[in-house]
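Per your request, structure below.
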């Protein structure tokens, strides 16, 4: 795998070295392939398996191999047919970098929960989230570090939400969280908790330690909403109010 024309799997982008890495089968005495191994070929940006830099590693079913900014999923042959339809659905609804629902899947979930909240007159809230000064992070540490920070941020966010909350990546460094059965006061508390957790945490990529802050806009359903997107638009407007007011803050 690499950028060179003679590679079997070719990626035409600067983050990939000409000869980046290779995959090799381990063949047993009966001639059957028993396992697969990935080996880094002294690439500039390294080869990562499940976010961990490796010189060489045996691949397990479901492992994520990062080559430059490309993330590949390793599937063992015995699982391929059964995983096919699941994988197609996942690709359509999941952000490949963070494993969160993508914008389409989040919008579908928002529409469903909004209809339920209106029908039963229940509270519903949204957090619109943006990572502060993310361009500076990319310029200072590189896009690979930025991607790693996004993945680690997404994992931290999931770990600090309820099981029924839905977090999605809306694009770039913009995220959103759907909070069913949570009113305005509860949403504000959840947003402040998440903001404080992220501000305290340090994200790591290779030898770099990266500090991140987030700005959050909070909105809750009210009787004047015409549809689900009205709530999201209010949250998004308040997000940008938080950024204008100095970042690393919550606006509701």
């Amino acid at each position: 795998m690499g950028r060179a024309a003679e590679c079997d799997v070719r990626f035409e982008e600067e983050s990939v070295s000409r000869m980046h890495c290779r995959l090799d089968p381990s063949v047993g005495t009966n001639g059957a392939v028993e396992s697969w191994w990935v080996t880094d070929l002294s690439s500039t940006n390294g080869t990562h398996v499940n976010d961990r830099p490796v010189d060489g590693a045996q691949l397990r079913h479901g492992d994520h191999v990062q080559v430059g900014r490309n993330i590949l999923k390793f599937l063992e042959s015995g699982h391929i047919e059964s995983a096919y339809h699941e994988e197609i659905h996942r690709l359509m609804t999941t952000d490949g970098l963070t494993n969160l629902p993508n914008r389409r899947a989040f919008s579908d979930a928002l529409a469903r929960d909004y209809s339920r909240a209106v029908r039963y007159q229940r509270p519903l809230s949204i957090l619109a989230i943006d990572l502060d000064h993310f361009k500076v992070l990319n310029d200072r540490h590189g896009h690979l570090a930025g991607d790693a920070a996004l993945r680690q941020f997404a994992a931290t966010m999931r770990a600090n939400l309820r099981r029924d909350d839905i977090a999605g990546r809306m694009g770039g460094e913009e995220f959103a969280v759907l909070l069913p059965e949570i009113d305005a006061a509860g949403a504000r508390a959840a947003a402040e908790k998440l903001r404080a957790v992220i501000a305290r945490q340090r994200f790591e990529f290779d030898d770099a330690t990266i500090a991140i802050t987030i700005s959050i806009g909070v909105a809750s359903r009210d009787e004047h909403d015409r549809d689900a997107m009205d709530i999201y638009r209010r949250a998004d407007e308040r997000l940008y109010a938080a950024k204008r007011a100095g970042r690393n803050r919550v606006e509701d």
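The two ends are 48 Å apart (CA to CA).

Regards,
D.
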